[in-house]
């Protein structure tokens, strides 16, 4: 059943702040061990747009709040895509470099190089 919109009552505007913060935290944690550094930049942009939504609503700028919400959603989607692509690339590189045995060998080479100093 469709309920008609009543004039003067604005529907709530989603700020996507929770999604933005979760994206930001995950990309900060993983940016050094995965290829997800580009996702960190877009997560920051998404968080900025998310925080603008409530400010625009409080100022009575419904159109600005809706645009900020739309931008926050878009940048969160871009962040998710970049994160997943970076994670997939990291997993592929892990197996290309020999998996766990390859990683252990690389660590052993680093240890030997440090001991020679």
UniProtKB/TrEMBL annotation:
Q: Which residues cross the membrane?
A: 16-49, 78-102
What the entry lists under InterPro entries is as follows: CD225/Dispanin, CD225/Dispanin_fam
Subcellular location(s): the record lists: Membrane
Q: Does the keyword Translocase apply?
A: no
- Asked if the record carries the keyword rRNA-binding, the reply is no
UniProt cross-references to Pfam families, sorted A to Z: CD225
Entry keywords, A to Z? Membrane, Transmembrane, Transmembrane helix
- Grouped into one coarse class, the protein's main location is membrane
The protein's matches in PANTHER family, at most eight in alphabetical order, are given as:
NG5, PROLINE-RICH TRANSMEMBRANE PROTEIN 1-LIKE
Q: What is this protein called?
A: CD225/dispanin family protein
- Look up and give the organism this protein is from: Lysobacter hankyongensis
